[in-house]
Amino acid sequence: MTTTDPSSRTTVSALAAPEGGGFPNPGLPPHEHRAADVDPRAERRAERLVAAMFVLSILGTVLFVASYFLFSPTGTNLLAEPDTLHAVRWNTLFTGLGLAISVFFIGAAAVHWAKTLMPDHEMVEERHELGSDAEGQRQAVQILSDGIQESGITRRPLIVTAMVGAFAVLPIAVLAPLSTLGPLPGNKLHHTFWKAGLRLTRDHDGTPIKASEVAMNSIFHIMPEGLTNETENYLEERAKAAAVIVRIDPSIGQDEESLANGYNGILAFSKICTHVGCPAALYEQQTHHMLCPCHQSTFDVTDGAKVIFGPAHRPLPQLPIEVDAEGYLVAKGDFPEPIGPSFWDIHKEK
Ligand code: FES
């Protein structure tokens, strides 16, 4: 093995041409020492920079935790009314920013530390047979312990202290959200805003929908009439009530009960995927399949939205509907079972 001496500018020597001809191994080019290897001031600068990055990571974690409580989507929010989309946006922005800063600067500090301060020795080692004898294993252990020594951990208490601080406060970013878990949802998931007599309205403008306006194979994104910004727990109610209606030819329907809960082939289903809750509303008109974009669960709306592919385990809950005297589509009641992801006592009566 031939190496450079880190304290000098000698180069790795070229190896002789192999026996029998061929090109001689040109060896490695002259080794360029980094500034921190030859200039103590540059070394201290790099050390301070690495420590500063760990400190920035700590500040990122502090920003995350502070934002979590000061820009809550449903509680205290310094920039917006709680329970509004603005409150959700500010919360997402600041907590995301805090976590990004926290994780990014830990990574950046590690990379800069490795590139500027870790040992920079060039080494050449001839290939040898695989497998180590006892002596080789002893040397491996020796190399590892030398590496720990050479990494300078024991000589750089500033970096070590800052790094320990950064890693120590990072878990707080996980604990902060946990501290606000609860109370238990109780029967909240068993009920939505839908109830008998509420008209089905278009999600984007709130106008009611007549059965005669629903063309064959079309899809509408719907919300219950009366669900507005003024509604208590508006965002939560919207999330639970989100649904779609599709119109199929009743003659292709395979599930009598599902057809009976619709009106003339117009069927209403929850839009919340029963896997982990993404909006499942990609409708294939030709196949009458409803797709969830997150993990590709596929529901057959001609067969009561049963799962025909993907990780979801149960059909999309169907909203029973009828028409009122003026021809508008109205709900006959709430969803018969909880919407969204399944949980252990989902069919327990509440
Ligand atoms: S959330 Fe729909 S498939 Fe996973």
UniProtKB/TrEMBL annotation:
Keywords: 2Fe-2S, Cell membrane, Disulfide bond, Electron transport, Iron, Iron-sulfur, Membrane, Metal-binding, Oxidoreductase, Respiratory chain, Transmembrane, Transmembrane helix, Transport. The keyword Cell membrane applies. PANTHER family: CYTOCHROME B-C1 COMPLEX SUBUNIT RIESKE, MITOCHONDRIAL (PTHR10134). PROSITE patterns: RIESKE. Residues 1-40 are annotated as: Disordered. Residues 240-330 form the Rieske domain. It comes from Brachybacterium nesterenkovii. This is Cytochrome bc1 complex Rieske iron-sulfur subunit. The lineage of its organism: Bacteria, Bacillati, Actinomycetota, Actinomycetes, Micrococcales. The keyword Transmembrane applies. Its cofactor is [2Fe-2S] cluster. The chain crosses the membrane at residues 49-71, 91-114, 158-178.
